[in-house]
UniProtKB/TrEMBL annotation:
Residues making up the signal peptide according to the UniProt record: none
Originating organism: Ciona savignyi
Signal recorded as keyword: no
Protein family per UniProt: Belongs to the IUNH family.
Protein name: Inosine/uridine-preferring nucleoside hydrolase domain-containing protein
Amino acid sequence: EKYILHDCDTGADDAIAVMMLLSHSHRVKAVALTCVGGNTKLNDVVMNNLRLLKLYNMLDKVPVYKGCGGPILPVIPVAQVCHIHGSDGMGDVPSMEPAASDDLLQNLQEEHAVNAIIRISKEYNGKLSIIATGPLTNLAMAVRLDPELPSRLKEIFIMGGTRLGKGNTTPAAEFNFHFDPEGAHMTLSSYAKKCAVHLIDYEVTLDYAVSWPWFHHWLSDNKNKKTKFAKAILETLRAYCEVKETKEWERGMSLCDAYAMAILLNSAVGLEPKQLGVAVELSGFFSRGSLVVDHFNRKNNFSPVTFYEGIDLDLYKKLLIDTFL
Ligand code: BDR
Ligand code: CA
């Protein structure tokens, strides 16, 4: 059995990753959702995870922890969050559980997410998989507090960075790494030498986007599912589509975070794993937050991570379909 802690900034594509995880609860154990600011403000991230768990009837099964609300070095004002997920992070759709709900908040754990990550890593010593689909602030703070943490983990899956420098937030940088470059740097440099780190970069998700016709067909196929849950999440996805489709480089629907979860749940989804050294650019004027990849293996002191050359789209689509069954 896998034991999975999901650190996320939910977020439409984070939400699909969370749902994939929850829909596998017969096979893997979701030990916690830890929240980090990114796509939207931290309190909204917390609410979105609670809203999802409520829709799934799993509020009592998966604890939610609130973590860091902004980057380690707040150069970007925290309020300047990602606009593609709507103001609440879930596309502001009417069918979602109301966001301002004290009842829901009663399910939030008191412990800080960073402390929870450290504690849980001790409880599942050697067996815990962490997946991070938001800025890496919580993971960086956790290793700063407890340098032994990485050696207690089984593996980490991270969605973030670029392999070839095609940024989605600046010309050089991807959103999660750009939001907290120091967090990304601290995480990669301190975990990668002590446990297996898998990096699902922005370009691989872009190259293996699901074609718009397939995605729209899938959305309308699911329209008939009348559960409150399906209705709400499909509306969120439709809102997300509308924004993504305006970006001409997005050739289809790439639910970035869902690819990372899919590979964690079924390693066959990730094709041609390849280990390369990486470092995060912290000081560049145009390139701050970008990922520098040692493609020719110069054997410098970069951090070794596993990239994937491709995605098995049939397996990935099956996981997406199964999530909604
Ligand atoms: C990443 O940025 C966020 O907008 C998405 O949720 C994903 O984690 C892609 O660059
Ligand atoms: Ca995310």
